[in-house]
Amino acid sequence: xxxxxxxxxxxDAGHFVRVEWEDGSESHYPCVWLRDNCQCPHCFLRSARAxxxxxxxxxxxxxxxxxxxxxxxxxxxxxxxxxxxxxEAEWLKKRCFSEEARAEMREDLxxxxxQYWGSDLQLPEIPFEEIMYNDESAYKxxxxxxxxxxxxxxxxxxxxxxxxxxxxxxxxxRLTFYGPTWQVQDKADANNVAYTTGKLCFHTDYPVLQHxxxxxxxxxxxxxAAGGESQVVDGFNVCNKLKKQNPQAYQILSSTAVxxxxxxxxxxxxxxxxxxxxxxxxxxxxxxRINYNNATRDTVFDIPAEKVxxxxxxxxxxxxxxxxxxxxxxxxxxxxxxxxxxNWRVLHGRQSYPSGSEVTRHLEGAYADWDVVMxxxxxxxxxxxxxx
Length: 388
Fold this sequence. Notes:
By secondary structure, the protein is of the alpha+beta class.
């Protein structure tokens, strides 16, 4: 993108700067924003890409003294205190305040596009070795993980420690009370329902934390011959269905604070309490995170008694949708498979399997935060696509 500037002028008594582009479009920039984002060495530390200008020194009612077109690729502004600022055309164009430009920037920074699915899911697969040593494959993996919510990595070694390598590929793993990684297998006196042979209902992990892990990684080291099938469901797809089918139920689940608890000993001793809405929504009412784990939902429920039964009715309708045949996808991990999925979006479960005197099923698990994953995605995009 190499936009050229046709004309520049001050508007609204100097409170706005209007830029007319060579393609005929125009952009309007508030002067307070322009002054706040001066790119000179005094106001901006280029080595850190961080603002040096102290906010208390910013005049929120500032107007331009003079604005000029330095050349077709740059504008210059003189402020009332004679401070001078310059802004590159490309920099300005990317930060245009039009809805179209802002939507384009959101897409570029956050990749909000989602591909919804149900029982018809074509589970994306990429070889583990490829994403470890090939940037294009790693970029494809993380883009697909963001868009679809789940990707299967195949062909990893059937030993503990592969997830640590995967964590280093991303950046670093999320430490929790269950350790940097944790072993899902049948254990005596289990401190988590996952460490049994029983069926696991659809859930997201760790809603008892204020900031639940964004991405979950599960590596199949050993698989039982009978049972133990994995199931996943696209929670955002189900939220859309619930919102359309029963708006009142959706409103209850997206506004009621539910108590979660987790007490025990693992990596260290812990006593965690948290309040979460089953469905977290953004300003537009769109689901952005599911916080649902029936096992750790507390007996304490901090709402008026008359609101309890309507809440249960709403949750039952949501749970029925999660478990409907059209929405859930069933598959069985093979030794060497690593399933990676969006823990804020994809709910997962497991079929029961026979218990025995020996461990017949062993998964190693780990978490990563979306901030870390998105950071790696942006860096990979820059190297793969040669983009800033």
